[in-house]
Amino acid sequence: MRAVPARPPPPGGPVPDAPTASSPRHGGPARWWSDRSVGAKVLAVLAVVVLTAVGVGAVAVARIGEVRDTAQAIYARNVVALDRVNNTQRDFQAMRGRWVMYGALTPAERPALLEELAEKTAAYEADVAAYRPVAASPERLDAFVAGVTGLQAAFEQELRPTLDAGGAFKPSYDEHMKEQLSATLDALQSAIDAETAAAQAAAEASGDTAGSAVRTVVVLLVLGIALAVGLGLLVARTISRGLQRVVAAATALADGDLTARSGVAGADEVGRTGAAVDAALGSLRGMLGTIDGAATSLAAASEEIASTSGSIARSAQDAAQQAQVVADAASQVSGNVATVATGSTEMGASIREIAHNANEAARVAAQAVTVAGDATGTVEKLGASSTEISAVVKVITSIAEQTNLLALNATIEAARAGEAGKGFAVVANEVKELAQETARATEDIARRVGSIQEDSTGAVAAIEQISAVISQINDFSLTIASAVEEQTATTTEMSRNVEQASLGAADIAGTIGGVATAAAVTTEGVAQSEQAVGELARMSNDLQALVGRFRY
């Protein structure tokens, strides 16, 4: 793995190592909170807002109830009291008016006025009875009632009798009722002032209650909003910071730097995303390391195959040259065999002439000995050539086996390279099939050369037999006539053997031609292998250049 240059930290601070399954996880509220899902965090903020609204609503309802109770109490105690004291004041003023009007009416009109006075007095007494339970100051009410009672007594006992007797209204009124009326009015005003003060105090208390309710609602609302905003900012910061680290790692990946890590911990969506990005970066680092190693191995294998292909090409050229030598030798063998055939024909003619000319037997025998010696040398050369062909066949067989092994190794390396080695696998398979075909051809050549060697041994034996026969001809010239038939048969056998030798020589020539063809095919296959090796080397360089774009 190559050294990686230092890289500036991503936004938001350096990125720590991402936690793994085996790394310790510290507990606590912060860890518990970070492990919650984004939906749960948003719902928590929403829950705070809802709880704040519910709390503020509940407090507002409760305090509004208090304000309502206070208002009802004001109405029950103060508004009703003011209304009733006003009714009392109205009926008292009506009584006072009847008292004053009594002096202005004639005696005939006064009974009706007295009836009205009695009605107003009854209404006054009812008003006092209704007002007393809600009076703010019962003492002031008692003082007023006492004053009214005194005025009633003064009217009934002093003013009315004086007026009924024809006396003047004003002197009697001023004497008996004026001062007491003023005191009674003061007592009534004092009672009204007490009710007004009580109503004002109740109103102020209600205002205080309403103000307290408003302050409580505002405080709760501010606290709830602050808590919701704080929690929302915490959620936003947690998500934003994690996403910034993930984006930094992804940006580094886009720049070809696989050493960056998001370092985001937590079981929420952002934490799982960061862990997935870190795992993907780790997998990419391992994969690029493997590709780099495979490209290096592929380059080394390409060099080795190129070297081996060169050796195979040179061996194929040597085999082609040796095949040409063998072909020349086979042509020479064919010529010698033709010579032997000609000699056999001449021998037959000589044998036929033996019956006519015994004197020519010695000369013919001498010629036969010479021809037999030539044939022996030719056959020996054929055996030596067959031995050389066997050696060449062994070399070709060894080359084919080595080519097969190299093709097998190349196939294995191509399989390791995966998709990048498919083309090389096809070329390696073709080289392997060509090597197997060469091995089969060399085995066929070996069999044919063995047949030639066996035929050569038979030819040598036949020629030795001919030499023996010729010696017998020389030794037993007197028995030529009796041996003519035997020599005829021998000559026929020799002709057959020579024909077989000719066929063997033709087979040698054909086989050597096959060897030459196989050598040419091998040379062509090696050239294709060299092209494939060049392609592999280029692919290896491309892979190394591609991997070199990344830091891991």
Structure description:
α6 packs antiparallel against α7. This protein folds into 2 domains: 29-237, no CATH class; 295-547, Helix Hairpins (Orthogonal Bundle), CATH 1.10.287. The protein has helices spanning 29-34, 38-102, 110-131, 138-164, 169-254, 269-354, 360-417, 422-475, 480-548. It is rod-shaped and about 230 Å long. Helix content is 86%, strand content 0%. By secondary structure, the protein is mainly α. Residues 237-289 form the HAMP domain. Residues 1-17 have a biased composition (Pro residues). The chain crosses the membrane at residues 42-62, 217-236.
Instruction: Give me the Rg, rounded.
Output: 71 Å
Strand content: under 5%
Helix content: over 70%
Q: Please outline the major beta sheet.
A: none
Principal-axes geometry comes out as rod-shaped
The DSSP helix count reads 9
The secondary structure category is mainly alpha
Number of DSSP E strands: 0
Q: Regions with pLDDT < 50 over 5+ consecutive residues?
A: 1-25
Domain Methyl-accepting transducer: 294-534
Region (Disordered): 1-31
Keywords: Membrane, Transducer, Transmembrane, Transmembrane helix
Organism: Vallicoccus soli
